Amino acid sequence: MTAIRAAAVAGSFYPGAAQALRQAVAGHLAAAAGFAASSDETTDETADEAAAGTATEAAAEAAAGHPPKLLVVPHAGYVYSGDVAALAYAPLRRWRGRIRRVVLLGPVHRVAVRGLAAPTVEAFETPLGRVPLDRAALDSLRDLPQVGFSDLPHEHEHSLEVQLPFLQAVLGNGFPLVPLAVGQASPQQVAQVLERLWGGEETLVVISSDLSHYLPYAQAQARDKATVQRILHFATDLRGEEACGAAPLNGALLVARQHGLVPRLLGLRNSADATGMTRADRNRVVGYGAIAFDSQQAAAAAQDEGSEGDQNGEARLGRALVGAARQSIADALGLQPADAGIDAEHPALARPGASFVTLHGADGCLRGCIGRLQAVRPLIEDVRANARAAAFQDTRFPPLRTHEWPGLQVEVSVLGAAEPLAAASEAEARAALRPGVDGVIFEWRDARATFLPQVWQQLPDARGFLAALKKKAGLAADFWSDEVRLSRYRVRSFTDHVPRGAQA
User: CB 121: neighbour CB atoms within 10 A?
Assistant: First the structure.
């Protein structure tokens, strides 16, 4: 008789009846696809946070020939984290049949494990059917001392099980699964296992992890945003209070960095965002994030696709964004500007996006510059908010006054996804930077600053560029540390209805 690991949390973490489960998963996947298509979004701030970064779905579409290599997904009950998980799973439908194996790692919650626990059964079961295990792959791990074989840690573990209905919905039931429950294991131990199972594009690695647990809402938001940044920069010292799947995640990030994968934040929210908790309940929330890691080939294909976009569409987008920025400032000043030229039908406006709005006065001098590095709300809302902030909240300048309006110049920069810049020294960093092309994010502990690519016009030398960026972060111009983290990004810049440098 074939040994089967039966579903343990059907009826609690997700619906127990097959039809109800299909409908629930389909609903979450449709919500994810609907958000990416910009059809039914709300502009409520918490809803914006729920899909932070899903503007990068466009990048996944552009790189449709290359599936993601690694996904980080949450594992709470579907009512809490299903929509976030779906942001990672929905795009996989286009690679059904192409992804032929899933390596799934998650933390243990009920049974103490030293190292990693591999099951001995032949299949895992959910109400949607059986998922066969790749016994040959699992048996190939028997010589590794950190891998033990036991079904006990898997028997009631939900962190792996809740991923299966999503995988079955998007990939079908034919893919073989390599499930591993991770307990006390170092990043190197996990990485060694993943390297052995890594494979090519036919193998998808999924890491199951929630984020912070039971913090007050605002504190949870801050903690989770910081944790996501650490994940995007391949930190391998994540702690359990940051991510409950820290052990498998640390090892996966070590391998991802070694293979040169490029991260994309897909979604970030918490249980209060998902369920509309009362104020009292918002004192104990759980955070959920979805992140994809692409091969450099896939990331390059996406970026190339973006640079070859419809020029007419770019011009429409530029008119809409600059017009929205001007309208936002004019409304705050109590003015009635001429037609702002906002094309509300442009699909990019409702997708999450990150932007900076830069203002110059009639004399050409900087008058304000405010923006966000993460896509946490629809692009047009981000531009409107940043325009108001640049005009009235940039502490370097007094609030904009009505008499300055006629000569005001408005520039909107739409940021692409940030990618970590590996550099063992400042000399390596200077050599890797692309003057005029790279926007740069500098981070060291709590210090953080960024320069848009436009700053290269004033600081064309990489040495001076980095020195000024460090001073902006509150550090000495000659400061450097092994803990420095650098990222770079590109922008599309639009000024006064004219697109400037689609990939500036």
Answer: 17
